[in-house]
């Protein structure tokens, strides 16, 4: 993460919209195009909404990613919410403890190239996801 | 800004603007449900051509609008899902199997009008 990182506080539903708009802008500057921009914005929307629904408050940090001469985008979503008791279950299609389709997190993983999730009950959840320009 | 609902004959038309919040989408759902009854609409068209992200919440809400209006005697057609958006929805595992879709407004209105003709034919 660098000084180019964008921090977006996630407290309400409108912040979800703002996070995905900022993410799309940064992804576009990194050289992503068309379909990838939509995939990135949609993945951001899912992880940001997860914060609003389950944790109430949290933050997204969106920044450029570098690996050798590859360019990409890193999205970090963190909250100090209740945490996820069973991550494997949460990553299954159709599993949800809230009023959702349970497709958010597994869907976000499919849309990105890298997806890591760390969570501790009572301490919060951190999701790190990356996508590389093809 | 709330989503305006236009009326053309017996069809209600709502054009969703980009950057719509969850709350505004839920407001649209309630407003459409009331408006279907108030105006005796037989069809609802929801234009999403300006939408660049259709996530699981938006899709679930559109499905719910379609199911609710159907129970109230009107059909819903979702119009103008962009190609990139459609691709992202498939990656998410989202489907609109129980929602009618059309490429554009004209096609949607034709679908709803044809439905009305058929229904009247059966009476």
Task: Provide a short characterization of the protein structure.
Chain A is an alpha+beta fold and 134 residues long. Chain A has 4 helices and 5 strands, in the order βααββααββ.
Keyword list:
heterodimer, A: 134 residues, alpha+beta, 5 strands, B: 123 residues, Transcription Regulator spoIIAA, five-stranded mixed β-sheet, 18% strand
Strand order of the largest sheet of chain A: 1-2-3-5-4
What CATH calls the topology of chain B is Transcription Regulator spoIIAA
User: Structural class, from secondary structure content of chain B?
Assistant: alpha/beta
Structural class given helices, strands, pairing of chain A? alpha+beta
User: Any idea of the CATH class of chain B?
Assistant: Alpha Beta
Total separate domains of chain B: 1
Individual helix count of chain B = 4
Largest sheet of chain B: 5 strands, mixed
Tally the helices of chain A: 4
Q: How far apart lie the N and C ends of chain B?
A: 41 Å
* Main β-sheet description of chain A: 5 strands, antiparallel
Share in helix of chain A: 25-40%
CATH architecture of chain B: 2-Layer Sandwich
The overall pLDDT average of chain B reads 88
Shape of chain B: globular
Helix content of chain B: 40-55%
């Amino acid at each position: 993460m660098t000084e180019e990182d964008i921090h977006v506080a996630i407290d309400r539903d409108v912040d979800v919209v703002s996070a995905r708009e900022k993410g799309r802008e940064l992804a576009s500057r990194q050289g992503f195009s068309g379909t990838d921009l939509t995939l990135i914005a949609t993945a951001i929307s899912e992880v940001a909404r997860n914060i609003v629904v389950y944790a109430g408050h949290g933050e997204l940090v969106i920044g450029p990613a570098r690996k050798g001469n590859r360019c990409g985008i890193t999205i970090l979503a963190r909250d100090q919410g209740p945490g996820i008791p069973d991550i494997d279950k949460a990553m299954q299609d159709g599993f949800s403890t809230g009023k959702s389709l349970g497709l958010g997190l597994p869907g976000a993983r499919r849309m990105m190239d890298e997806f890591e999730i760390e969570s501790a009950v009572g301490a919060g959840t951190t999701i790190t996801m990356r996508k590389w320009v093809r | 800004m709330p989503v305006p609902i236009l009326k053309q004959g017996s069809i209600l038309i709502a054009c969703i603007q980009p950057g719509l919040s969850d709350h505004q989408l839920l407001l649209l759902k309630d407003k459409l449900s009331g408006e279907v009854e108030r105006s005796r609409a037989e069809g609802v068209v929801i234009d999403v051509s300006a939408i660049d992200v259709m996530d699981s919440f938006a899709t679930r809400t559109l499905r719910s609008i379609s199911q609710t209006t159907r129970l109230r005697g009107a059909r819903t057609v979702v119009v103008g899902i962009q190609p990139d958006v459609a691709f992202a929805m498939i990656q998410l595992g989202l489907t609109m199997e129980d929602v009618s879709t059309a490429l554009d407004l004209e096609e949607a209105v034709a679908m709803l009008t044809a439905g009305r003709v058929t229904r009247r034919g059966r009476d």
